[in-house]
Amino acid sequence: MTLSLITEQLLNGVQLGVMLFLMSAGLTLVFGIMNFINLTHGSLYMIGAFAGAATQAATGSFLLAMLVAPLVAAAAGLALETTLLRRFYGRDHLDQVLVTFGSILALNEATRMIFGLTPLRMNLPPALSGHVDIAGIPYPTFRLAILITGLIVAGLLYLVIMRTRIGMWVRAGASNRPIASAMGVNVPLVFAALFGAGAALAGLAGVMAGPILSVQVGMGEPILILALVVTVIGGVGSIRGALVAALLVGVVDTLGRVLLTPALGSMAIFVMMAAILAFRPKGLFPAHG
Amino acid sequence: MKKLIASAFVLSLLSSAAIAADPVKIGFLSTFSGPGGQLGQELLDGFNLALEENGKTIGGRPVEIIQGDDQAKPDVGRQAADKMIERDKVQIMTGINFSNVMLAVAKPALDAGAFIVSSNAGPSQYAGAQCHPHFFAASFQNDTASEAMGLYLQNKGVKKMYLLAPNYPAGKDFLAGFKRFYKGQIVGEVYTTFGQLDYAAEIAQVRAANPDGVYFFYPGGMGINFVKQYNQAGLKKTIPLYGPSFSLDQTVLPAIGDAAVGAFASAFWAESFDNPASKKFVAAFEAKYKRIPSPNAADAYDTARLIDAAAKSIGGKIEDKAAFRKALETVKFDSVRGKFRFNTNHFPIQDFYLTEIVKDAKGRPVMAVREKIDSDHKDAYVDKCKMAN
Description:
The complex is a heterodimer of chains A (289) and B (389). In chain A, a hairpin with a 2-residue loop joins β1 (131-134) and β2. The mean pLDDT of chain A is 88. In chain A, α9 (220-234) packs across α10. Chain A contains 11 helices and 2 strands; from the N terminus they run ααααββααααααα. Chain A has helices at residues 3-34, 41-59, 62-83, 93-115, 141-163, 165-175, 177-182, 187-209, 220-234, 239-259, 262-279, and strands at residues 131-134, 137-140. The model of chain B has no long low-confidence stretch (mean pLDDT 91).
């Protein structure tokens, strides 16, 4: 492989990683802080993509779609949290898996009833549909835009979590829930806000995936599996861990597909997960001490 | 005595009238749920359209459709088929779209004495060594669309090709079919994980290998993702995309949009076909379902009309299995594909065309016929079939 090809593949890997980070950020916080396994996270991603595609179809504006999608996903997430999922925080993980898995089926079916089974289309705005030259490689502008957007969101999240009072509550909740609650943190409110914010990020990931991937029922499940891998590798509840793990998974998956045979390539990230867990059972950056 | 004979005569009239009025029972097993559910609906819509045009009859008899969902899983399909055969006593089974479901379902259905007239799946096993007197594929043998594209690129003298498909049995079959006729250099043959979302890495490898063309088989969502991303990478103009119609038909084209324009597909039928049966079908389908039909819908439409024509030729008495088999083998009907006949293995002999994806008058991407690739194309397995009498 030439140097420029390796560079291009690394760029592809980082871009996939950034996308995975947007998905995993919400997942890891909800899992880490509420000790809640939320499989509907993939459905929120799907809802974001459909909301974005419908907005673009109605108004023709990609920018508006980018704004509407996270809001719709957040609203859907909050509705789910307050009506159903909240009741399962105290239950064991099996109950949580069952109720969120059931929700996936219900949400998929509801989406099918509204939009039908034919996949929807999202078009790129002309400004983002070309490619830019990076060190002699014609790289799609939109992928670069995903990469930059993802890095900006990651930076903002880091600032919010590490430098603000809300972030402090979140971190406190992640490392010791009962004590944080005893110290006067309004835990239900933080939980709901966190769930909504995670849903918004999933919705953003969904709408950004729209022009690259097919917007169709069930699109959330494959990416959910990767996001779970990222969450486990990064350490449950850790934003920093999610970022590092997402980039790692993105790059290893991309290079694995290129350099290894298909069977090995698709296994690469799972082998990596097993290896990391063997030495660091709680992931790379565990939030719980 | 006279009275007795007369009443026996009346009774016999009654009973034969009862047979004629008995509905023909057809089991329509297909994928109706999950991401693949679109395909089952496409097939059923095509099949139902033909029945409606026919006053909901088959061979002059009323028809009863028993619908089943295989969820794209062989075991689920097998259970649904068992129910259709044992409880509903279906006489003909059709609709199956996935070959692995077909392989799980065909034997028990045939053993129970039912006919299978496939409107989609055409696995090599039943075209070859396992061919069966009561198994018919009104659609295609799985490899043939790929063979046609291989033949086209071979005849055109294209030197270097890059091949891509998902890593599952049909993916390998499609590329094998392509290589059966394409003898140029293959600079890359890549099998990706089934259901893979992002193809940036593979596309970068294609650019680096710089072939004269890419042949790909990605059904459903995979194809949508791949073609969109290939276009965004700016490769479509320099390295043309070639695929079987299944990767570029109306089940995916609306979602791909302009990104597909300029790609080439090999097809046994396209929405732009210029024969009266096809034009009538496309117009009726669009009027009823508000979308352009895919080749799958066209095959299902043909399947219903083929069954009807065969049944009609024997006065609707499909219970006479030897006669019905004979009628199917020699069936004459107005296929939307122009011409159609069964080979000795009960798989079609049909023409294949090169189509290019262009925008129609309303700006929708469609397959436009460019040239005929092969007349009377036969599948590669017919010689292995020793059809029982």
